[in-house]
């Protein structure tokens, strides 16, 4: 199970391969803001992939549409649409940074 380090919390969690990053983080008690409950409508689950981007699958069509509309760099993903891969990740959640 890949280790995922969350920069803002200085914490490591485990997210099973294939589990969406949003769900996996919530499973481990990470409470970060999101509005649309994973419906790809708000982008409040935005996450910067600091390390491990190559291990993630490409954006699905919904995430791709929203990312292009927001002019997001390729290292930003929607946690509600992105499943964990098999490699470790380092993630930065802008919504967590705003809370601290
Ligand atoms: S939770 Fe709204 S886009 Fe991900």
Description:
By secondary structure, the protein is of the alpha+beta class. The protein has a five-stranded mixed β-sheet. A hairpin with a 4-residue loop joins strand 1 and strand 2. The longest helix is centred in the middle third of the chain and has 9 residues. Bound molecules: FE2/S2 (inorganic) cluster.
Q: What are the SSEs and their pairings?
A:
Blueprint: E1 3-6, E2 11-14, H1 21-27, E3 46-51, H2 61-69, E4 76-78, E5 89-92, H3 94-99
Parallel strand pairs: 1-5
Antiparallel strand pairs: 1-2, 3-4, 3-5
Cofactor: [2Fe-2S] cluster
Keywords: 2Fe-2S, Iron, Iron-sulfur, Metal-binding
Protein name: Ferredoxin
**What are the secondary-structure elements, in order, as H or E?**
EEHEHEEH
Q: In terms of per-residue confidence, which ranges show pLDDT below 50 for 5 or more consecutive residues? A: none
How many domain units?
A: 1
Q: Calculate the mean pLDDT score and round it.
A: 91
User: What topology, given as strand order, has the largest sheet?
Assistant: 2-1-5-3-4
Rg from alpha-carbon coordinates: 12 Å
**CATH H level, superfamily name:** Beta-grasp domain
| CATH first level | Alpha Beta
The name of the CATH architecture is Roll
Cα distance spanning the termini: 29 Å
The geometry reads as globular
- Share in β-strands: 15-25%
Number of helices: 3
Q: Major β-sheet, in short?
A: 5 strands, mixed
Pfam family, one: Fer2
Cofactor: [2Fe-2S] cluster
Keywords: 2Fe-2S, Iron, Iron-sulfur, Metal-binding
InterPro entries: 2Fe-2S_ferredoxin-like_sf, 2Fe-2S_ferredoxin-type, Adrenodoxin-like, Beta-grasp_dom_sf
């Amino acid at each position: 199970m890949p280790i995922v380090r969350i920069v803002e919390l200085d914490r490591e969690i485990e997210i099973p391969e294939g589990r969406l990053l949003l769900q996996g983080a919530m499973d481990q008690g990470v409470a970060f803001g999101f509005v649309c409950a994973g419906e790809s409508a708000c982008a409040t689950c935005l996450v910067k992939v600091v390390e491990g981007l190559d291990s993630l699958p490409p954006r699905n069509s919904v995430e791709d549409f929203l990312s292009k509309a927001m002019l997001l760099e390729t290292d930003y993903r929607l946690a509600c649409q992105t499943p964990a891969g098999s490699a470790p990740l380092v993630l930065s959640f802008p919504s967590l940074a705003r809370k601290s």
